[in-house]
Amino acid sequence: MAWDEWEQLKTRAADRRSTAMRLNRVPDEGDAAAPQGDLEVDQHDLAAVGDAAYRLFGDLGNHGRDAWSVSQEAARDLEAQGFSLGGALDHVQKRWEEQLKTLLDACAHISNHMDFTRNAHAGDESYVYGVVSSIATLDGGFTERTQR
User: Fold this and answer.
1) Each residue's pLDDT tens digit in the chain (148 positions)?
2) Cα(96)–Cα(65) distance, rounded to whole angstroms?
3) Are 55 and 114 in contact (CB under 8 A)?
4) For a 10 Å CB count at each end of the chain, is N or C smaller?
């Protein structure tokens, strides 16, 4: 490949790249692809997520350790008979317990966070309502003065 040919290829590649470049930005208001509206939080959705996490927490807490005693007994029996599988079963059971604790913590965190979020948004809603209604009251006072 000659030097001139290389330069031409570089120039063509640079031309293609400059026309294909697109910057991330907020779309123009008239852009049809732009999402419409504000972020909305539905209290029912938050409650449903929190309730599901709470139910999962309860079910895992009640049934997540059902096989613990049977597995430990089997591990001891296998080890007593000279099978290395007993130690492996004990290891798996311990790892299961660690993972179960992690999952229980995550479910509790999700449930608590949804409760907190629901309460925070309710407080925000109350605050916004108070501010807006006080503005309406203030506007009403100005309107009364101009009508005298």
Assistant:
1) 677 888 888 888 777 765 555 556 666 666 555 555 566 667 787 788 888 999 999 999 999 999 889 999 999 999 999 999 999 999 999 999 999 999 999 999 988 888 777 777 777 777 777 766 666 666 666 666 566 5
2) 9
3) no
4) C
Cβ atoms of 27 and 34 within 8 Å: the answer is yes
Structural element, H or E, at residue 137: helix 85-146
Please state, in angstroms and as integers, the Cα–Cα distance from residue 115 to each residue in 9, 91, 100, 112, 125, following that order.
Answer: 60, 36, 23, 5, 15
The answer to whether the CB of 80 falls within 8 A of the CB of 9 is no
First to last CA, the chain: 90
Query: Looking up tokens 């029996």, which residue turns up?
Result: 77
0.85 cut: is pTM over it? Answer: no
- Contacts of residue 87, Cβ cutoff 8 Å, sequence gap at least 6: 75, 79
Helix axis angle for 68-80 and 85-146, nearest 10°, is 160
Task: Specify burial of residue 75 (Cβ count, 10 A radius: 0-12, 13-18, 19+).
Answer: buried
CA dihedral (136, 142, 143, 148) positive or negative: positive
